[in-house]
Amino acid sequence: MAENIESNPFVDVSVFLFFEDISDKQGVEGFTNYMVGQAESLAKSVPEEEYETWDDFAKAVASGESVFSSFESIEQISKYGFVTNICPFSKAIREYIKRIGNFNPVHVEATDHYNHTIQPSAAHSACMMHQTYRKEVAKRIKIDGKPLQYAQIGAKAYTGEIALPPESWKKVLLEKAGISETQGFMEMRENSCLYLLYVEERSSR
Amino acid sequence: MMDIAIYSLVDDMVSKAGTEGVVEYWLRVGESYAERMGKEAYVGWPAFNVAMKEGRTSLTVEGEVNVLTDLAIIDKDGDVIGYVYALKTCPMAPTMRRYISRIGPIPDSDTDVADSYNNRIRDSAVSNYCITHQRFREIAANNVTVAKQALECLQLANKGMTGDVKMVPENLARINVDERHIKSILRSASCVFAIIVKGKSAGEEVVD
Question: Helices in chain A by DSSP H: which ranges?
Fold first, then answer.
C-alpha cells in the first residue's frame, strides 16, 4: 500500500469555503455543478487499470493498491458488496466544525439539489464529489476486458442521517450485492458508505 | 480527499472563469476563512508569542511556526512593534505530495493562477494556494490586538516545492530586515512573515 500522507486541515477547510463562495456567486446549482465537474476531472487524471479476474480486482481494492481505493480504506463484504469504514471527508468536516462552527446551510441545499436532479444518494455535499469520483474512476478500470460498474447503496452523514435510494432501486441493488436489507443496515451501523461494484456478465447467445 | 479536489477544481475554474476569476475566488476564501475565526486580544508581545508557539492563535491554524524572538522589530523610538515568524511546513505540501503520488504531475493551471496573481497583485505566490493562504494571514492579523493595538501581517518570503523563492522587498524594507537573513530562515521553513503593529514601520515614518 502507498505511503499514507495526511492532508493539512487548513487546506481541507478552505476547499469547503471555496465551494461556499461559488454558491454565493452562482447559486446552489453552480455549487453542485462545480463539485461534480471537478470530481469528473480528478477521476480522468488517474491512471487506468486492468485486472484479469474479479478476485484480483477485489484484492487490489481491499489492500489499497487500486486507484479506486486511493483515498479510502475499502472492505469487501460479499462478492459485489463493498463498504468504506471511515468517510475520507470526515476529518475535513470535523475540522470545519471545530474551526468555524456550524456548516453553512448551502451544503444541505446543494446536497438536496444533487439528490433531486442527479441521484438520491448523497448524505452530505462531499458525497457528491466522492460518488462522482467513484463513478468516473470505475470507467477507467477493466476486469477481464469489461468496465467496472459502480452503484451507491447507502451513505451516512456526520449527523448520523443515512441517504438511501428509493425502495425499488434499493431492492435491486441489495439483491445484486447479495445482502439482505437487515445486513445492509448492520453494515451502515459500522461503516460510512455501502456500495456495489460489479461487471456486467457476458450475455449468452 | 477534500484537499486533492483543489487541483481539479482550479483546473475546471480556469477554463470557466479564467485565471483572474480564480484569483478573486481565492482572495475571498482567505478573507471569509479569517473573518469566521473570530477576534483575539493579548496583553502584550510575550503573551502573543507564547500563543503563537503553542499554536493557539488563528494565525497558527495553518501549522507550527518558529517564533523568531531574536528578530524583534523596533521603531525609531526603540519600542518593539513586532516580530518575524517562520511557518515550518507549507499547508499545501502534503496535498502536493499526495496528488503527485496518487494522480500525477501538478496541473499547469496551478502555476497559471499563481502567475496571474504575481503579475497583477503582488509577486509573492509560488503556487495557487499561496493566494488564499497569504490573504488569510493578512485578514486574521487584523482581527488580533496586542496591548490594545491592532496588528497587520507582512508577507516576507516563501519557498515552493521545487525550491523557487519569492521575496517581498517592500515589506523587508519596511521592517529593516536583510534579504540574506530571511533566506537563511527559509532553509528550515516554507514561509516567513512579520506581525507588526498596524501602520508602524522600523524606519522614521509611520505608514498609512
Answer: 9-45, 54-62, 90-99, 106-117, 125-138, 167-177, 181-190
Residues of chain A contacting B102 with CB distance shorter than 8 Å: 2, 46, 67, 70-71
CA–CA dist B68, B194 (Å, integer): 10
Q: Which residue of B has its CA nearest to A35?
A: B9
Q: What is the largest CA-CA distance in chain A?
A: 60
pLDDT at B206 over 60: no
The answer to whether B44 and B146 have CB atoms below 8 angstroms apart is yes
User: What's phi and psi for B154, nearest 5 deg?
Assistant: -115, 120
Q: Where are the domains of chain A?
A: 9-198
Confidence (pLDDT) at B124:
97
Cβ–Cβ under 8 Å, residues B137 and B58: no
| CA angle A165–A168–A169, rounded 5-degree value | 45
CB contact (8 A) between residue A126 and residue B62: no
Residuewise pLDDT in 10s, chain A (205 residues): 455 678 888 898 999 999 999 999 889 999 999 999 999 999 998 899 999 999 999 999 999 999 999 889 999 999 999 999 999 999 899 889 888 888 999 999 999 999 999 999 999 999 999 999 999 999 999 999 999 999 999 999 988 889 999 998 999 999 999 999 999 999 998 899 999 999 987 654 4
Q: How far apart are CA B206 and CA B185, in angstroms?
A: 27
Q: Return the closest-CA partner of residue A173 out of A144, A194, A142, A190.
A: A194
Name the nearest CA neighbour of B165 among B124, B133, B112, B110: B124
Query: Terminal CA-to-CA distance of chain A, rounded, Å?
Result: 41
Substitution target from B6, B8, B27, B61 for chain A, most A beta carbons within 10 A: B8
Q: What is the ipTM of this complex?
A: 0.74
Q: Which three cell numbers stand for residue B86?
A: 517562520
Q: Are B172 and B63 in contact (CB under 8 A)?
A: no
Question: What distance in Å separates the CA atoms of residue B128 and residue B8, rounded to the nearest whole number?
Answer: 12
